[in-house]
Amino acid sequence: MTIKLTSRPAAGSRPIRAVTPAGLDSLSGSESKWAKTMRFSGEAGSFLVVPGEGGEPVSALLGIGASQKDAWRKAAVPFSFGALSGKLPAGQWHVEADDGAGDPTLRALAMRLGGYRFSRYKAAAGKDEADVEVFAGEEADLEEANRLADAVFLARDLINTPTNDLGPAELEAAARKLADEFGAEFSVITGDELLARNFPMIHAVGRASADAPRLIDFSCGRADAPKVTLVGKGVCFDTGGLDIKPSSSMLLMKKDMGGAANVLGLARLIMASRLDVRLRVLIPAVENSISASAFRPGDVLQSRKGKTVEIGNTDAEGRLVLADALTLADEETPEILIDMATLTGAARVALGPDMPPFYSSDAEFSASLAAASVAVADPVWQLPLYQPYAENLSSKIADINNVTSDGFAGSITAALFLEGFVERAKSWAHFDVYGWRPKASPIGPVGGEAQAIRAIYAVLQQRFGTVS
Ligand code: BES
Ligand code: MN
Ligand code: ZN
């Protein structure tokens, strides 16, 4: 069930009261009594409907937990509102909460995020839709909350869609649809045309699939605005290639286009809010498949940049397709170049599923991002582009190997590999995302998840503002 956010409190709408465990005492007589009877705790995520004399719901209590010292937990307090979705009885409601319940726009966002379901393949989809409308408060920016939710839902839907319905061709169609919605200029280079136009590594990784590899490219915004280019790893399925993954590691690999999905979500946000930038989106879309034409361990590939790359492992494919796309992006010297990719298992070992590492040598961008990350409760953490590890990518016969021999610092060395293809961009940042929520939470079920895009958007918004 999804909650509809309304811009005005409806006549006769009932209050949803945000309550801390300590705040239970200040409830009115009947609410306080009912809360005690029902042992409502006020813990984060606890919820109670308070009935009137005829049993009809007259108000609702939402627990937001005790005040938090930890910055991440504190930032996530408004996400308690995600628990309302699926629980609020039908009809009109309005939020009554103070600053202790966190940013009002984030509360509104949480109410929408919590109602997300991926129902494309479920026969009963949509039948249990209750009609619930909530006024989130005067201070909540409804349009912003809806833009954010739409961007997150786009990323989730794309990641959740299995590869039989979302190969490179369908990823192209999804990007085209988004571009068309905002009047962006769209082009794509497909199959052998990639060789003719000098994207040899995108071709090599994707050529074994029945669905041709391609490079998706769209641009939007006034031509002389600062250039912001987003590059997303669009590996629609990652078998590992000839260095095939064991089945347990392959099971979730429909999500290996999570970087592309995030970039499309972020692009939607940037275009919908009309940030004053010249946006360019590049997505190398491929399936890392196995056939007689697959690239092999030991092959040496030419890259767009001219560097030769020895293939130590065909499962390190993301960095190869990204390298050619980053090279193209870099050619026009963008102000900001951002890439997002489900690049390494090592990033998960280091920081777990919820906190994507990012890499950048732009100290100012990194500091703004770290601050925005906490402010909008979208966790990211900077890891170092530690140059001494770059030599572990050396090859005896080519300019570079796509993997290290010792296997240490896998996320860092992947980032260093990419850095070697970026020269001119004034500022470059790489995000090694997971793209998946492994445990259900108030703001979303298990499945595809947008990561880092709200934090990046906040930074871009501060820096560039909107078209007046
Ligand atoms: N798509 C995977 C990385 C991945 C695996 C992300 C699991 C999230 C969850 C990537 O293409 C890959 O296979 N990376 C290898 C690199 C290795 C061969 C150097 C990895 O991380 O094991
Ligand atoms: Mn791989
Ligand atoms: Zn991959």
UniProtKB/TrEMBL annotation:
GO MF terms, alphabetically ordered: aminopeptidase activity
Ranges that cross the membrane: none
InterPro entries xref list: Leucine_aapep/pepB, Macro_dom-like, Peptidase_M17_C, Peptidase_M17_N_1
Keyword Hydrolase in record: yes
The keyword Endoplasmic reticulum is assigned to this record: no
Keyword list, A-Z: Aminopeptidase, Hydrolase, Manganese, Protease
PROSITE patterns for this protein: CYTOSOL_AP (PS00631)
Ranges of residues in domain Cytosol aminopeptidase: 313-320
Family of the protein in this entry: Belongs to the peptidase M17 family.
Name recorded for this polypeptide: Leucyl aminopeptidase family protein
Organism of provenance: Jiella mangrovi
